[in-house]
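Cross-posting from the modeling subforum.

Setting up a comparison between two proteins and wanted a second pair of eyes on the formatting. Protein 1 (sequence, then structure tokens):
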Amino acid sequence: VQLQASGGGLVQPGGSLRLSCVVSGFTVDDYATGWFRQAPGKEREEVSCISSRDGTIYYGDSVKGRFTIARDNVKNTVYLQMNSLKPEDTAVYYCGRKSGSRCWGYEYRYWGQGTLVTVSS
């Protein structure tokens, strides 16, 4: 199982970024896949997740209305569109695969190397 995240970078407050996560060794329509982030000195925070079978979506309270998760079953890729970025969104973003098909009730079992998002003027 491999997950390769990309798309991070430096962006000004209010700007946008789109993260991509190309996965291999499994298919995104068999396992829930999502994003979590880790900022220095802070606990890991789940940002968003999409369930595999019914496509139900979870968003953390801090990103609701600003971030959108999507997946492409053909490309076996999961995306995170991040709009209206704030300095507090600065973190390393990881994409991960859950141990089951739904976002709720399952832990992340695999994740990639992460991509750094910095929101600063």
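Protein 2 (same layout):
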Amino acid sequence: HVQLVESGGGSVQVGGTLRLSCTASGYTYSTNALAWFRQRPGKSREGIAAIDTQSGSTYYAGSVKLRFAISLDSAKRTVYLDMNSLSPEDTAVHYCAADLRSWYPLTAAEYNIWGQGTQVTVS
């Protein structure tokens, strides 16, 4: 079965940067989209960035646009999230998702496959 494994989370100071990675493993797999979500304490899971794996089109939540960038290395089966100008409001568990059912790329319920999450703490 397909697994998504996130890495790169950690603690960072306000204004700092982090790069998250998510690598797909398992049998040969092709997904129409890959996305990053986050879940802050006491909040529902929020879509923050997604990429169409065919066209390369990207989608961002307003709260991270111009600060975060999603990118894809198809050869490595890895999607990245570059996060800049981090603030305490970005503190959350960050999840990678794949296999979009319908074209709402920042909607958690539309994804079938999830990683285990990686914690990002900004202070």
